[in-house]
Amino acid sequence: MRSKTHILEEKSVHQLRNIFPDQWVIREKGKDYGIDIEVEIFDDNEQPTGLVFWIQLKATDSKSISAKKSINMPIKKIRQLANYDLPVAIFRYNADDNQYYFDWIKRYAFLSSNSKNKSYTLKFNDAQCWNTDSSDKIHHDLETLSHYTSKSFSFPVVGFINHLSGPIKFKRILSAAIGERHLLINLSRDKSKASLEINLLEGQLVLNLKSAFGSSIGWDEKLENIDEDFLLDVLHKALVLFLANTGKRKDLKQLISEYNLLDSFLMHSPILTYILPELIACDTDNIFLPKIIDSIYLSDDLINQSFLQAIVFLGNNNFIDRPKIEEFYNRLILLCIKHNNQSFLSTAYYNYGSYYKSHYILDKALHYYNKAIKTDSSYLDRFYFKRELAGLLFQIRRYKCSASLYKEAIPLEKENIFLLGTYGDALMYSGDYKLAFEYFDKFLTANDSLAEDKKHDKYEFNIKFTLLHFLINVIGIEHQERKEFAANEKLTGLIESELRQFDKIFEVLFLDAIYPTAWYLMTEYYLKNVNPQGYFLSILFQAILIKNNSTIWAFVSILCTYEEMEKNLLYDIVNTGFFYCRNDFLKALDRLINLEDYKDFKGEEFISMVENIIRDPKEYPFEMRFWDGEKPKIIKLSK
Question: Could you give the CA distance from residue 383 to residue 377 in angstroms, rounded to a whole number?
């Protein structure tokens, strides 16, 4: 026997098919996502418009007007539906009079944002009852939604004040406060002409821009003497959050400057911390930042200091220039010393060093890393610090120290198989070629076993694995104390005829097997002695050791197409060359294929193939750590 609920659901879907236009294709959905219907809109020529939305149906046969025009839903469910990529409409079906009420669920996600309850009542009005114009309204909403979600709209916008609950007089007061000449809003009495809905609730103001963006500010419902200034200030706070969320920096700066809002935000740290990245980004003439820094430092609030480190660290994305960041950290360090707070001080030193490391100011990075260790020796026991310090030491060519730290980090961070590759790198540049070869092998094997979305870029490590195999098994060098200076001295002491002799070149390699000029000479030797593989690998050694020479990468890529060469390395060579040289690599390829030597080479086809096999390099986020009470928090920032 079918339940009453089941019968109502079937009837609601059936009736929905009757009221929708013929050009709307209805597909019933499974219940996994809480969605009942998918609707795709076609035009009059039966061609897809690209407009698709989802529906959740809620049916009732109650005779109560209140029940017909409202739905009580868990707020968690509202937010789930609002977060889907496709817009979701909520339809309320009344079996008693065969009517539907409808609205976009995201609007209620905004309206319920400040609620402390677990559920929220969605209330519909008569204008939301389905009629002959409703399908056109939905069509128009979907067409304009992309305009707003892409942030291509501009200010001023037309706004409508919508009173939902609380004293009705607040609507009149706010309307008078906004007036006719507000910077961002032109008020209208006609809701259908407005794109921005200004909702007034009990102790709350909620902005809703076509269910694309919204913001909310609440206040104590028991407050007395709520006047124009108070409500205008609430509106401006909501607008500032809204502008920060939509990235409208020019309007954000203009609003804060025009209405002198900065002081009130400095007194309201939750809003300040939310808008600060955009606030600093829009502060092109450095008006806001000095006042922000002074205000926070004068408070002597160490918790604020530590939190703001994460915001200022956005300098990694060039939101803030170097002098501002240095000013921030230097003042923070003085404050920590004043309070004798070693935890905050060591964290400040570490994050300051991380900032310099990310900008390749390596001497200063090492200086502040050392200060972090001296302030708190436990840093040397932390896996992330070992890994990051190892990377820094590698960059300044202290390879043995780097290898030692990577070795210690591996067992502390077993799930991070990328460490196997970086440890191999440090070993290789330390002269321990055989062990480096083994760790490249371990990394490549472990990486192949990962799910596709978890894999690391292996291109450069695969090349080095191949080159070390050649160095160990053909050249015969497994380990050495690298003597780069002695290799250079030996090389400069050779006469011209000796530069083409294998034994003389080998003497240089025996001093430093990864000395690039020696491999250039090996290239000449193998070319003269018709050894294609040796010729190819010698050039590849030059490419991997010099790294940023786009011509060498382009040449060795072309060589991969010859029958005697290592064709299986093309994918790795192209992606490594592009990683280090970017578009200069493609330009170098273009120059080479236009040379007379390559007139019979299908150059254009080759470049097209190369462009197709290039993959965006995997980006690793910067990590920022700061103290919140007793525990460190980690913030990851994309490059």
Answer: 13
Distance separating alpha carbons of residues 32 and 34, to the nearest angstrom: 6
CB-based contact 558:598 (threshold 8 Å): yes
Please provide the DSSP assignment of 420-460 as one string. HHHHHHHHHHHT-HHHHHHHHHHHHHHHHTS-GGGPPP-HH
Q: How many residues does the chain have?
A: 639
Residue 58 DSSP code: E
Nearest-5° angle of CA 245, CA 249, CA 253?
115
Distance CA 576, CA 25 (A): 48
Distance CA 312, CA 625 (A): 13
Token readout for 22 is: 């013929």
For the chain, domains (ranges, CATH) are 4-149 (3.40.1350.10), 457-613 (1.25.40)
Parallel/antiparallel/unpaired status of strands 119-123 and 88-94: unpaired
pTM: 0.63
420-444 residue pLDDT tens:
999 999 999 999 999 999 999 999 9
List strands edge to edge, sheet with 99-104. 24-28, 37-42, 48-60, 88-94, 99-104
Helices 362-375 & 342-358 angle (0-180, nearest 10): 160
pLDDT tens digits for range 498-550? 988 999 999 999 999 999 999 999 999 999 998 999 999 999 999 999 999 99
Contact 380, 407 (CB under 8 A): no
Least confident of 56-65, 373-382, 563-572: 563-572
